[in-house]
Every structure is written in structure tokens, then in C-alpha cells.
Design goal:
mainly alpha, two-stranded antiparallel ribbon, about 60% helix, flat, disordered C terminus
Amino acid sequence: MSPEHDEEVGSDAIEMTPSAGWPMILAFGLTLLVAGLVTHFMVSAVGLLLTMRAAVGWFREIFPVEMHEFVPKAPESQRVQPIKVSSRSVVQLEPGVGSHRVRIPAEIHPYSAGFKGGLAGGVAMALIACLYGLIAEGSIWYPINLLAAAALPAMANADLAQLKAFNGTAFIVGLISHVVFSSLVGLLFAVLLPMLPTRRAAFWGSIFTPILWTALIWASLHAVNPALNARINWIWFIASQIAFGMVTGYIVHHSKMVETMQTWPLAARAGLEIPGVMEEKGEEE
């Protein structure tokens, strides 16, 4: 800003860039543009329009001359006061010493508990799914074949009679995918549950988390597994997901937590065999 401009504005205002919502609208438009790839082309169309309009609005604010606005200064009584310097010193905590928490949580559930909980939750979910197949369709192979349809095009185009019949290939594909996904989600439970503050939060997290990912599956299932999307019963589906979350959460939450290495001395974390390091650690425990 030129000196002449300074005199016109005065010392009671600050020159700042104007507040505008174009960057946020541009980000939202790009999000819709990508989300339409897995939902509907109209979502991408709306995202494209928002992106183009936000880009034009944003560029007009900075080209050819950047726009500014002048914000009046607050009164002296409301401004931040200078920090008073004190002669006292503060003892700084050092990472790994005196149980100083470098990162939270300081204790986690073992990964093995996550895998065990995921497998147990997968069994509970499979029982609910097979019960649905037996009650609603008269065949326990119906939900298994629907699950395998995500990887087997033949099952995705199969009729009702084929979905009710046993298929060895579909059984193996469905079993492998179910075990893999159940184990990975169980591992996520082991990582995330220690971040919840109380047992009640962990309990409700085991219920609401399956409901949240069920909503995500509902929004994208027609693109991932059309056969399952066309024949799925969402009441039974939610029940199976909650059964998985409850069983997995219970097993993981009741496992013995282990201390993370962040509280260990640097030599112990590096795996150096230094006399007195691990012995002192053992005595503290």
C-alpha cells in the first residue's frame, strides 16, 4: 500500500484480504465431482458447475488486482496486552522420561486381539447372515453367494435359483473375502478403541461404528456389488453389522493392554543392548 493510501485510510484500520467463501465452495465442488464417479453422473455435473463458478469468483477477487478490505482496529483496552517476563524457569519434560506422554494413547490393545476379535465378529456376522438366508430364502448359501458376487461376475448375473444353490467357487471366494475384511476391521478396532475415553464410549462405538459404515455401504453398494444391492435386506444387514461390532468390540476391549514403546528410553526403542536400560525398565513396571 502506498504512503498516500496510508494517509487516506489512517492508522485506525488494517488492510486485509476480503473474506469469501469461494475456496470452500471450490473444495465442495471438487468433492462432488469425484463422488459422482461412484454414485451418479448428476452428482459430478453439479460438482463441475460449482467448481467452475467458484473458480471464476475466486479468480476475479485476485486478478488483475488483488482485492482488499479495511478492518478497523480494536480499542486499546481490548487489544492483547504484552506478556510479562518472569525470572522463574520451568522444568521441561523430556520424551520417554517420567512417563511423559509423547502421543496418546500410551497403552494400546495388542494387534492379535484385533485379529481375534475380527474373526469372532466375522463368525457372529456370518451366523446372522445365514439365519437370514434360511428364514427369508430357505437357503444358507444365499448370503454367501451374494457376498461372492462382488468378485464373481457369474454370481452377479445369477438368478434366484442359482443363488440358493451351493457353489464351491463362490463359497471359497466369499469365505476368503469375509475372513480378510473381518480381520482388517478387527485390527481397526484394536487401534481405535484405546482412543475412546470410557467403557461406555467403547460400547456405543461398537454399535454406532457399524451403523456408520452401513450408511457408507448403502451409498456405494450399487456400484460395488449390484447383485447384493438389488437383493439385500437392510434390516438384517444392519443386525449382522451390529453383531460384528458388539462381538469384536467386546473381545478387543477386554484384552490386556500393552504399553507403547514411546515411553521407553531411546536406547531401548533402538534395540540396543545396553546394561542397565531394560533392567531399570523392568523394575519400574
